[in-house]
Amino acid sequence: MIEPTPFHARTAALNRTGLWSHWAGQIVVERYDLDPKVEYYAVRNAAGLFDTSPLFKYRIAGPDAERFLAGVLARDVRKCRPGQAQYTFWCDDRGFVNEDGVVFRTSSDEFLLTSAEPNLSYLRNLIGYLRVEVEDVSADYGILVLAGPGSRALLASLATETSQLEYFHLTQTKIGSAPVIVSRTGYTGDLGYEVWVESGDALAVWDALMEAGSSRRLIPFGNLVLRMLRIEAGLLLIGVDFRSSRFAWTDEQRATPIELGYGWMFRDLAKDDRAFIGRKAIEAELAGATSRWKLVGIELDWRRFDDAHRSLGLPTPKIDVPVEEAMMIYSLDREVVGFSSSFMYSPMLQRHIALARVPLSLMAPGSPVQLEIMINHRFYPVGATVTRLPFFNPERKTV
Amino acid sequence: MSASRSYDAIVIGAGHNGLVNGAYLAKAGLKTLILERRHLVGGAAITEELRPGFQFTTFSYALSLIRPDIVAELELTKHGFMVLPMPHSFAPMENGDHLLIGTDHYRNQIEVARHSQRDADALEDFEHLMGMVVQAVKPLVDSIPPNIVSKEPEELARMAALGSHLRNLDPKVLHMLVRLLTGSSADILDDYFESEILKGWLASSSIIGSKVGPRSQGSGLVLLYHSMGEYDGIFGKWGLHKGGNGGFTQVLARAAQAYGAEIALNSPVTAVTTTNGRVTGVALESGVELEATVVVSALDPRRTFLQLVDPRELPLDLVENIRRMRFQGTSSKVNFALDGLPRYPALGDRWEQYRGFINIGPSIDYLERAFDDAKYGSYSRRPYIDASIQSVIDPEMAPPGKHVMSCFVQYTPYHLKESDWDTERENMADTVQNTLERFFPGFSNLVLQREVVTPLDIERTVGLTEGNIFAGEFLAPQMYFFRPAPGWNQYRTPLDGYYQCGSGTHPGGCVIGAPGKLASTQIISDLREKAWGGGLPR
Q1: In this predicted complex, what is the ipTM?
Q2: Which of A40, B184, B359, B446 to pair with A89, CA 20 to 30 A apart?
């Protein structure tokens, strides 16, 4: 049976489309509104609420918790102080990405980790003699994403101290009588928060947030809009933009953090004495510049996209529903050199954007490429330019 | 600003077309100054906080026609361009029922079928054909029209290209285009539909801003014009810019400044100065004179040709054409600050219907009767109202729980036969408020404040002749080849270096930006040709 999330009673009442998605064995709203753009702009202009409960959640606790994670996670978790959070990867010993997720440090010896796929046996198998326990707490908590320029004031009206929360910091507080963990994180590329609440308190916290947001036009948003927001934010989706090394058949299907554009995580590697999984391979990749490709952003040349349609007598489609399938990338001499994994029309940027893999020779912002677009069942290469990620990066996100 | 300052280009009027024009000229490397008479940019596209926390869109109130190429070329998204969706269109009926159109294809069919089964798929045929027509005229909207009186080979070639474009159209599309350009919207809509509410809703777009009724020849043209816009690729859809259209013109101002244009507020221009038929600059009301190689008027044609320059320097034909040009503004605005959302009895406490336009024009008869009053020189006793509660779409436009409501009102002719607007202003607004009260019982109890803008107020505040919102009526003899006058439809004027870029030029009217852009194209190309520009690369 497909399971409801702790917020299901509320999300079901508000879902006016009858459209649902399955996510990690749970049922979540695909879109609430007949016009998804309304939900999208709630996040970009006001405030939106998203049920992200199906994430897998692990508690890693014990005197050696930090030491354990420092060896498992690729990014140096020791720099994540209590009250902070980190986006991170965990790799295999050949430096290929198993998964990505966010680690939340709730105290000196306790962490919470979220991931899109199950990792309990993977993590427990690496404990060895360390004094640490890894526990799957997925069902214990519901998580809400509250995002948008209005989210700060809205949340502060319920929990004053959250107004001071810095980017990727967290605090333990209460909404009403329910204890919650609030972190300045999310998957939207906007000012926003995640609120962890014990499952039994989930509905009360949902109600409190919706009530506080009622005069500010807070509306819930579904899975479709989250996928739009994350592309604009340049954030990766496992199974779409990369594949877990654990379940890849060949190395061609694998990716390294550096290839995925996260080489900055290893900037201080020389000063970092951790023995973490994949370290040697990552060092070798950095030293030898042996990355095979780079995940970059590309922007389609709007005029050429327009012309391609106009010359066929067609209006220019501007479809914001993400295409999460490969579309070929060509070099200017018409050779296939890569592919895009996520493509959409961005309403905020008023242009088509894509996350794409290109050869290192074309990774520099400004590099010209072509993206293969299908029009009337024929393929047309349309000019595009490599651009810096994230595509959309408002000041309010981090300030 | 000192008397000795000189510019490559001076743009008179910081309405949206003036700002677009100035931004393109600055982007091309011209030292550009944009002069604005008032204390804020935007012309008729402004947002004003008339009550703390309440943002009023005093004049224009939504966006659709703004050309996507301008948004991209001027990099407006970097400066805050953001058009919020208006997914619904809500048309209340006099019997308490309603038509509520949204973005879901089949829901709309079901909703239309409530009123007429056969109209449901007829609406699709109609919309598809309108889309084909819009696609067909788009290249004409987005380019400089040929000069119909010129015998220059370049212009003859342009005419030939236009002819070939039209010849290549699907005959059905061409015929619909001709019907729209010459006929009445009621005739066309009667061919497709039987439902009065559906026809009333569609016909409303055929009268906005114009002194025509849905049964007048010429209303088809107005309908076509209002269908030519798009919202993220969907033809005919409208949106609300963040902060209203004033939010949009602030974005344009930032873009223009980012390209190096200067904007001077509180700087009324009294005259464009000339020597021997060649422009030399402008004279300000302050007494300051500024020099410029190019002067561009973003004002309407009457002011451009008869006020800023001496008509005696102009060909008599042109002067006569401009004098004859019809303006006769017929629209007003009544904007409200509200204590809460109005209640439509049949929909109880629902509010989603307010995410868009509220169309008080329940039948063609209703619209035509409203027009009848105007024909005989009075304002409509039962006016057509295009309302929108903008704070539902952009919550920041009013304090939490409160709202701002923009109401575009017709018909309110500039020339009242038996009275004048200073006398009738509040009476007209009462008529509007009473009309709203009939559809939304209890409406008046919600009103915290009311702003009334008559055609006379539009003329006084913005400078649009007779308060015509398009800077010259949308009439076939005032469009394309003839906007604003035959032979002078390519943004030039008889005075060397003096150009026009306002809504009174092709394809002006509405917040479209194309006149500003196309004028800049003409200016830059002329400068290159004549090598006036000094630094302009060929």
Answers
A1: 0.94
A2: A40
